[in-house]
Amino acid sequence: MNESWHTAGPAVAARAVTKTYGNGVRAVRGVDLEVPPGEIRAVVGENGAGKSTLMKLFYGLEQPSSGEILIGGRPRVLRGPSSAIALGVGMVHQNLMLVPSFTVAQNVVLGVEPGRRGLVDPRAAVETTARLAEESGLAVDPRARVDEVSVGMRQRTEILKALHRQAKVLILDEPTAVLTPQETEDLFAAVRRLRDGGMTVLFISHKLREVREISDTVSVMRAGALVGTVATADATEHSLAAMMVGRDLILDVDRTPAQTSEVTLSVRDLAYTAPVGQSLHGLDFDVAAGEIVGVAGIEGNGQSELAEILAGLRRPTAGTIRVGGTDTAGLDVAGHRRAGIGYVPEDRLHNGAALDESIADNLVVDRHDRPPLARRGILHPKAVRAHAERLISDYAIRTPDPSVPVRALSGGNLQKVVVARELSAGPRLLIASQITRGVDIGAMRFMYERLVAARDAGAAVLLISADLTELLALSDRLLVLRDGRLVARFDDTTGLTEKRVGLYMLGVEQHDREHLTTGLGEIS
Amino acid sequence: MTATLIESEDRREYRTTRRRDLAVDLSMTLATILAALAIGFLVMLATGKDPIAAYEALLTGPMERSFRVGRWLEDATTLTLLGLSVAIPFRARQISLGAESQVYAGALAAAVVAILLPLPPVVAVIVPLVAAAAAGAGMGFVPGAMKARLGANEIVATLMLNAIVVRVYDYLVNGPLRQTGSSAVHSERIHPDSALTPLTDWFGIPLGRSNIGLGLMLLTAVALWLLITRTPLGYRIRMTGSNPDFAEYGGIRVPRAIEWSFVIGGAVAGLAGAHLVLGVYGRLEPGMAGSLAFEGIVVALLARNNPLVVVVAGLFYSYLRAGGDIMEQQTDVGTEIVVVIQAVIVLLVTAQALPDLLKRRLARKQVGAR
């Protein structure tokens, strides 16, 4: 393992690398990149800028169409991840890849198990894992089953797995997207420690603040090409953002005070008993037309369940839900959509899209059976295509053609497809769940503008997010969920700080019942 | 943004890649068939037979006499209909193996109507066809509803239903429906008015038992292609097959789409049964569908569940079957070699990685040349 590394040259490098996918989408164009050993290098860029593809090239998941990949100072042909791993490259993916029913230790040693004569030595596996965890400062419980531990620990397990395989280069693809602030800090401390031990780290992120905090140098990609590499100390968030989008960009949202009219969504005494996951207890709240109501909370406190109940994907156990005068509690999903509910799901890969189908087909799932797309039982492909062309230009979806399968799109671009579909339906109530998760600054700003525009056009917006900055920037009012209960309600978000909301999220403070329910009208 | 320039460039590029991919797919299929024939050639050489004479019989035999063409078309009609019948549930990602029960249910329904019910001409053809489609659809609905509403495994459900229906069919043909006074086991003949007109009558040359069921099959294939690509129901079936969670999220009633895919497939298999009764045999015979129900699955897989391609695959597959019979009659090579050739083709075509590998290599070369 790790044979023939040149100590002098760069740890990893790309020379004039271009990658064209089989469907003609060119993701990386002529990139020259050199990362010296023992450096934390951040790679930033908009969606579809080619960051993930470049990393897949380094990890052997994709092969370059032209140009060469260098690892350990020498040009290499990576036929797959196994050859990259043999050369000392480890990668932690955005969607973690572990065996859920195995323990942490079993996952760490998977493929390189200690033991003899084909038998795995479980004790040695646990000891190895504990030792690696100790050395690197990545705390894990080696005996816990992966499906029972937190996302943060799963991620640490992935990193330990790479360390166990003696990685000299570690690629982290948006590692902080799934982490709490505390976990992020711990991760950064561990990454620095690894760097000081000689590890080369490639860090992909959208969050410029984190990039500034953790990296030594930053490489910026735009539209598949490398725009430039700067020392982190010389960069500001502003200058990096400008490099990424090719223009100056400010993330502050221009937002006039909400002009609310009648109540669109009223939820009374909503309860839900979850077979798995978080149950909900006695929720009461309103969302009026023309306002954005944010829902804050540590992930897993009932936000997903609430969103899916409101969208009709789950049935509440008790309580009433009214959307613009329609009682939606007994309706199916199509009934919810007819009542004017749009939903941007938190996991677009799971149910936000059919990945192997075209962009055009993905844009019509809620309207494929009515004019102008279908008339008298006939679906008109030309109309579907024209519909797609219109939304592609309205929502700046980057694609060569509407017939491209959405699998070929990058994360933010795919999210644009989902948002385009949900907003173009002209919803009365929009439920937006983690709308900017895994999305770059350019697309983020775009989503924010669209949400505010939808609000100003009279939609009621329920914004569920794990990103407090986002919630505070966008919400006219803010609710906080903890353990499936509403624990706070802020009717005015001006001057509200992340710290203050955090106290409610963590359970240090709580609003009383009277405050939570004042002004909620009776519903007939 | 700077994207417009890139986009126009990429669109052109995207279109050329698409065209090239299609060419790769087609030439790969041809190469696959040639490779399979070459392997068959080697096998025959190794067993000391005369491969040239055998291949002459296999490849040109079905075309040599008009009644052989008829034999091929008659077989292809049934096989293609059965291929179409499973392609539709496959599109909803439902592994339906129920073509066998559906084809026999369709044959029974068509025969009962065409034997017992005196009807005026034309109507006498249409009513048994409709009855067969309805019986097949009903036989599709049972496992479809079991899967969609009760969560039964569709593979088990369809296989068990096959076992039951085939036994019932055998019982009826050997018992209540058996022609009295006949030494062979079969039913009474259908009314002459109910028969599907033989192609011989149309073209004036002997074309065996092939009949206008061929045209019916072609119409069905086009209708199913339109259903899949041009109707809301087809869209729902496609989305359900592609990602059921997405379909549900979008407001599609996934269980309904699954049921419909089974019902439509069943109706088409029922038509195949009617074709056997009204067009080929003119009565019920034991085991009249042979192994066609399962070969229909192979045809659907070869065609990647595209109804129009199923027609091509069905005609091709039947051609090999017909040629194999002639080869066996005329030379000392048995039909086993045809099975070998068919199996090699199926293996190579279902190994989707091969054309993808070639496409990737081409893409690399193209970029390198620039």
> What is the top-level CATH class of the largest domain in chain B?
Mainly Alpha
Report the structural category of chain A.
alpha/beta
Biggest β-sheet strands, sense, barrel of chain B:
none
Name given to the CATH homologous superfamily of the largest domain in chain A: P-loop containing nucleotide triphosphate hydrolases
- The assigned structural class of chain B equals mainly alpha
Cα gyration radius of chain A (Å): 24 Å
Report the mean per-residue pLDDT of chain B as an integer. Answer: 87
The total of helices of chain A stands at 18
The portion of residues forming beta strands of chain A comes to 15-25%
Taken from the alpha-carbon principal axes, the silhouette of chain B is globular
CA radius of gyration of chain B is: 23 Å
Q: How would you write the strand order of the largest sheet of chain A? A: 6-9-10-3-11-12
**Domain unit count of chain B:** 2
Describe what this molecule looks like in 3D.
- The complex is a heterodimer of chains A (524) and B (370).
- Chain A has 524 residues and is α/β, with parallel strands linked by helices.
- Chain A folds into two domains: 12-245, P-loop containing nucleotide triphosphate hydrolases (Rossmann fold, 3-Layer(aba) Sandwich), CATH 3.40.50.300; 263-347 and 411-517, 3-Layer(aba) Sandwich (Rossmann fold), CATH 3.40.50.
- Chain A is built from 18 helices and 24 strands.
- In chain A, the strands form six sheets. A six-stranded mixed beta sheet of chain A has the order 6-9-10-3-11-12, sandwiched between helices.
- In chain A, strand 23 and strand 24 (485-490) form a beta hairpin.
- Chain A is globular, with a radius of gyration of 24 Å.
- With 370 residues, chain B is an all-alpha fold.
- In chain B, 49% of the residues are buried.
- Helices cover 77% and strands 0% of the residues of chain B.
- Chain B folds into two domains: 18-49 and 337-370, no CATH class; 69-332, ABC transporter involved in vitamin B12 uptake, BtuC, CATH 1.10.3470.
- In chain B, helix 1 packs across helix 15 (353-369) and helix 4 packs across helix 11.
- The interface between A and B is large, with 49 and 42 residues.
